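G., the chain you wanted modeled:
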Amino acid sequence: MAFTLSTLLDSLAINRTAFWKALAIFFALLNLKHIPFAWHLRTLGGFLAHLPFTSRRLLAAQALPRTSLFQPMILTSRAAPLEIDFYLHKSNSTYFADFDIARLHLMVRLCGLGLKTTSEELYVAAGRKGPKRIGMGMGGVHMNFKREIKCWQGFEMWTRILCWDRKWFYVVTWFVEKGAVKPKEWMLQPWRNKQPIQGRKIKGEDEGTKGEGEKRKGAHPAIFATGLAKYVCKRGRITVPPERILGASGLLPPKPKDHETPPMTDSPAVPIEGDALPAAVASAASATIQAATADAADDLLRAALNARPTDEGGWDWDRVEQERLRGMKIAEAWCQTEALGEEFLGDERPALGKWWDFPGI
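Predicted structure as tokens:
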């Protein structure tokens, strides 16, 4: 008699309907990220996790220090079976959904209070007319892949603000091997500081590095991929500068009267000289900005772990501006890709043909 799954179930006295139901439930549990409306539930979870701290009363209990402006927020996840492509690793297209959730957690926590406060101020200033709330919209996203993530492999998303200009927030996320990198300190979760902070040894960790105390050459070996996105804040059709949102969130030090954040199109390719920044800061910014390129974004993960001063007294406007300029060099290189829209010639040239993506779609 031929051996089949049916004969095995009969021999074990297992109800076939119950077996297939259990198998379907097990498969769904492995792919919770991809059940219907899962993305919406994950988004709602990001709001619920951080919105309570955007109220003035609760924020006083766990206020964000100014030094957290450029610090990463870490979100953990796993490559579900439905995310796996023909090469048996996480499909490139699925990174963007995880990127959405990671950015949401960061922006709600850092900018939630600022968005609420600024919305109220602008609504009153407009005579209580027009939109009551400021909306935050996506303007673009880029992903750079380094290593594959295998099926069911855990990973972490390290997300932080890279920089900003008069219009855009630029947010970077690193997809990092789970447990391979540990921050020196947990700023909002002090109970984690009792745990060992030594990262796990990973393959290739010593490759492309120098001696102790010297800067690493190349990307951190724990990085799977790097994402960069830009956000704009709008009240109706009016753009609200990121600087105002961050200031209302209490994340910016006092601003010099003669300082003005340049727009993206006028952002300098080299550090500002003279009156805008003190000579010492301009010199320090020059060294970092000249070394920064579009491919150097991965190196900022290491900087993110070491950028925090020991106290807020050293985190003045000049220090913030130095870090912002360092990130702007990378953002500027990415924004050059907006010119690709001019390369679309549409009906000016012939096409190869037209096909269905999938029958019936």
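The longest strand covers residues 223-235.

Shout if anything looks off.
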